[in-house]
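Reply to dn_fold:

You asked what the input looked like. This is it:
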Amino acid sequence: MLLTLILFAFVNIAPIPLHRAPVQNPFKFTGNEFTRDNILRRRIFLQEGDVFTRRNLLRSIANVSKLRIVYPVRLNDVFVRLDRTDKLIDLTIRFRERRTRPTKRAS
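and this is what came back:
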């Protein structure tokens, strides 16, 4: 708690703290050409209207990274933008899809 107070002393405090703003849905996904958004979306813990927490963001990244159809997502692949007028957080997650082999169909 003391460390947090010291950090805020040297930083300009925005009128809307990032950790208190609700998340705007739908999330934006980039880089997924073949994977549908709903497959990625159900792996995300943050929902529309939830208060943004770093913990849920990290859990979501870890959960999406378990999919074998995309390369692991890093924190650098997540873009968080605070919309000050609407007081909402806009999330964009960048993916890199893995090349998958076509499945053989039984004749």
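Residues 54-65 form the longest helix (12 residues).
Hope that clears it up.
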